[in-house]
Predict the 3D structure of the following.
Amino acid sequence: MQKMNEGPVIILAIESSCDETSCSISRDGVILSNIIAGQAVHEQYGGVVPELASRAHMQNIVPVVDAAMKKSGCTMDQLTAIAFTQSPGLIGSLLVGSQFAKSLAMSLKIPLIAVHHMQAHVLANLIAGAAAPSAGSVAAAGSIVAAGSGGEAPLPSFPFLCLTVSGGHTQIVVCHSPLKLEVIGETLDDAAGEAFDKSAKLLGLPYPGGPLIDKYAKEGNAGRFSFPEPQIPGLNFSFSGLKTAILYFLQEQKAKDPEFVQKNLADICASIQGRIISILLNKLKKAARETGIKDLCIAGGVSANSGLRASFRETGEKLGWRTFIPAFQYCTDNAAMIAITAHFKYLAGDFSPLTVSASARAEW
Ligand code: KG4
Ligand code: ZN
């Protein structure tokens, strides 16, 4: 039995797909709170250890939900729905969030909303006041604004293109409407985030290496070392060849000078980052040409990369795109993106039964 509320739509959303435990509260599509607890325990292992991630979610979830509720100023009896990341992700991690969400929805007798993590990354661009538009966009204000935003925030107009770049996925998506998304290109092997993290590992940097490559690249010369751009047909990507090229390059250089990495870290990072960015943006340009779409977004953890953000903007200015990037805190994993997606699902009456199960893999 579900209680439907006639007042504002207040959603409690949980994200626990990987190594961040997050809870967000939204009211009518406006984010009131977004609490994120990271898991430092994985650093020493050079990657996320699934079992440790599940245990950390178990420890974090109650305090994180509590903090999100307090910050929002809402009370449990005001909530209209509970949302959670259903897939894809680490199954043990997903189970913690999904079981918590189901229990809460059941005890409060309110609807449960299952959210796809990759759809949520894309829709982070629809969080009112959070997506940072390019300079030209403010005047040209998009006709679509999130419900309850007051209409002031420019958001991308449908259909828009989104390059979603995370630790597990790399996709080009046409977003026809919040609930109708079409994947038109994706990676055949490693994701862009993995290309960053695996390159960082080869350089002896701790996990996650993406933000560290970003940091060192700021001081480096991206033209110093040249890495190959794979020739993959259509709008698909491949990053495994790049990783191998970097491995051989480093082996060769270290044979000549064991301190090669330490002496050239900034230039190596800038060159690797530059190549990953050009692979991503060349495919995005192709997608924009082929679809004729002029509103372009980026999303996912790698969209926090300062080099990608700057090159995306520059490319957009040259090619007459309106460019949108989620605010920094909505790029990497967060529950606010689950809340905004759940908001649109709530409006469409797209609820899930309590029997819904979390799933490590999911097509969409
Ligand atoms: O979206 P996300 O937080 O989690 C997944 O859904 O996978 O993405 C995590 C990925 C990691 O590979 C991480 O290294 C990368 O995003 N990342 C970055 C930066 N910040 C996070 N990569 C490059 N530069 C950054 N500043
Ligand atoms: Zn993610």
Remarks:
- The longest strand covers residues 30-37.
- Residues 135-151 have pLDDT under 50 and may be disordered.
- Residues 260-291 form the longest helix (32 residues).
